[in-house]
Design goal:
One of its GO terms (biological process) is teichoic acid biosynthetic process. With 240 residues, the protein is of the alpha/beta class. The chain contains 13 helices and 8 strands. It has one domain: 3-Layer(aba) Sandwich (Rossmann fold). The chain is 53% helix and 16% strand. It is globular and about 55 Å long. The two termini are 27 Å apart. Bound molecules: uridine-5'-diphosphate.
């Protein structure tokens, strides 16, 4: 099921259904883009047509975080659950280990993607990691990185360059890599590698993960100023 929020398409699927959809993409062998849509991205897309295009071109757009789920409810749309980047990545890795899909980890600081891959292989025996690559490269180097990825013949690429850099890279280079699916996953490698801790489960259940993140990484406060503006935008559009 698909819905539209502030001009962007969103797939209102459970985690299980989202994974199933990705499995179909991989079976097809054709290139598909997956976007985990958070309030910040959707807010910025209102003023940046390139970002909105990324959402429209994606084969799967998941509601990343409670902000999007809340906004859908305000707009009277049915959304079953949030499907965040890291949760989707872990669910896909689990399935990949069972199915034998070759996965690639592109992004984060030097050493982090290797560390994350090592931990994933321990946690999900049988996982086939085609390769890893750090995420700090110039625009001139970006095509070369796609070529390095292609040579390892991955089927599923996790791209952790932060938004919207990861969406830009996926948009330009997915076909060149030969992979069937690329998913932008933000800071997930840092969490998996143990560099950044996720909020405790009870805070996640209270939907306060964003607050924990703000307290831990105060430098993010500027970015999070977008959240109240997003809330106001949603109320204005759908409730006033
Ligand atoms: N990153 C990267 N290359 C860059 C900029 C960032 O690989 O040029 C990585 C960074 O190390 C981090 C992730 O991208 O692992 C961004 O994490 P963040 O939590 O900021 O993601 P967002 O919230 O923007 O999706």
């Amino acid at each position: 099921m698909k819905t539209t929020l502030l001009g962007a398409p969103i797939d209102t699927l459970t985690m299980e259904e989202s994974v199933e959809k990705v499995a179909g993409f991989i079976k097809s062998g054709q290139p598909h883009r997956v976007l985990t849509l958070n309030p910040e991205f959707l807010y910025r897309a209102q003023f940046d047509p390139e970002l909105m295009e990324f959402a429209r071109r994606a084969a799967l757009v998941t509601p990343d975080g409670i902000g999007i789920v809340w906004a859908c409810r305000m707009a009277g749309r049915r959304v079953v659950e949030r499907v965040t980047g890291i949760d989707l990545m872990l669910s896909l890795v689990h399935r990949a280990a069972n199915e034998g899909w070759r996965v690639y980890l592109l992004g984060a600081a030097p050493g982090v993607s290797e560390e994350a891959a090592g931990r994933l292989c321990q946690g999900y025996p049988g996982l086939q990691v085609a390769g890893t690559h750090q995420g700090y490269f110039s625009d001139e180097e970006a095509a070369g990185v796609a070529e390095i990825v292609r040579q390892t013949r991955p089927q599923l690429i996790f791209v952790a360059l932060g938004a919207p850099k990861q969406e830009q890279w996926i948009d330009r280079y997915l076909e060149q890599t030969g992979a069937s699916v690329a998913v932008g996953v933000g800071g997930s490698f840092d969490v998996i590698a143990g560099k950044v801790r996720r909020a405790p489960r009870w805070l996640q259940r209270l939907h306060l993960e964003w607050l924990a993140r703000l307290l831990r990484e105060p430098s993010r406060w500027r970015r999070q100023l977008i959240l109240p503006r997003f809330v106001w935008m949603v109320i204005k559009k759908y409730r006033l």
